[in-house]
Design brief:
Blueprint lengths: L8 H5 L7 H13 L8 E5 L2 E5 L8 E4 L7 H13 L5 E5 L3 H10 L3 E11 L12 E4 L2 H12 L4 H8 L4 E6 L12 E12 L2 E13 L8 H15 L4 E6 L4 H8 L3 E10 L1
Parallel strand pairs: 3-4, 9-10
Antiparallel strand pairs: 1-2, 2-3, 4-11, 5-10, 5-11, 6-7, 7-8, 8-9
Helix pairs in contact: 5-6
Length: 272
């Protein structure tokens, strides 16, 4: 049984049968997570755990489990020491295919489940139509972060600036006659493409993230347009695995399903 959390148990128990793509996604997410420890901050690898310190109180301060094997007790201890040295709470993310082994281990080391997201995948063999709303890629990190912050709410400005300026992140704005400006944009979203290797094979994984719609423009198709634009961009980049994480039961989840994503598992966050 999963530890008690503030997340509904229904969301955690609706996990589908683990898919073979989840191990590939775990490797890609761990590799992508490393970007947040560079060039500032700190990055450390403890066996299958890729740990990052971005800056004080950053939500990026955490570790990703790469899905390959359970961490040893010493690796967990070293991760705790890393967190203590940087003044952050030990927090790690894993995908549900690794949960049967890791949940008892993490429980023994004082971790509890604190958050659950649904993990969706798209194989890009069938793409949605081109977006009906104008969508443009931008290099203006500040304008993009400003649009995101309007959607996510006060206090999100700094983290969205950090995401926007992370190397390898592509930024998109939707809506209006001139979507290169924050004032005209209805919504914003990001795309990151990361290489990963598994055994003798390798691939490119595209992560769709940072999706935000300004409150006054919700329900007008901005998110659907941003999903379509990024799926087409991921296909053009040669990605063979495309993912998005979403809060269960939200309008965003419905939009993701309509865009052709399939539910593949859960992203579980544990903290000690």
């Amino acid at each position: 049984m999963l530890p008690h959390t503030g997340v509904t148990q229904a969301a955690a128990t609706q996990a589908p049968v683990p898919q073979p793509d989840l191990p590939r996604l775990a490797l890609a997410e761990a590799a992508a997570h490393a970007r947040y420890g560079q060039p500032q901050g700190a990055l450390a690898v403890f066996g299958p755990l890729v740990a990052v310190h971005d800056q004080p109180d950053s939500p990026l301060n955490s570790a990703w489990h790469d899905g390959t094997r359970p961490p040893t007790p010493q690796e967990l201890a070293d991760f705790r020491a890393f967190c203590a040295a940087h003044g952050q709470r030990p927090t790690l993310h894993l995908l549900s295919h690794a949960a049967p082994t890791l949940i008892p281990l993490l429980g023994e080391h004082g971790y509890t489940l604190t958050y659950v997201l649904h993990a969706y995948l798209h194989d890009l063999t069938s793409l949605p139509p081109a977006p009906a709303l104008p969508v443009q890629e931008t290099t203006d990190a500040h304008a993009w972060a400003a649009v995101c912050a309007r959607g996510f709410g006060p206090g999100s400005e700094a983290i969205m600036e950090r995401v926007a300026r992370t190397p390898g992140t592509r930024l998109f704005l939707a809506g209006g006659p001139d979507v290169h400006t924050a004032e005209e944009a209805m919504g914003a979203a990001a795309l990151s493409v990361t290489g990963f290797s598994m055994g003798t094979g390798s691939g490119l994984a595209a992560a769709l993230h940072g999706t935000s719609t300004r409150p006054e423009h919700r329900g007008q198709g901005a998110q659907t347009a941003l999903l379509a634009a990024r799926l087409h961009a991921a296909a053009q980049a040669g990605a063979n695995l495309t993912s998005v994480f979403v809060t269960p039961g939200t309008p965003s989840e419905r939009n993701i399903g309509r865009a052709g994503f399939r539910l593949a598992g859960l992203r579980l966050t544990f903290s000690a």
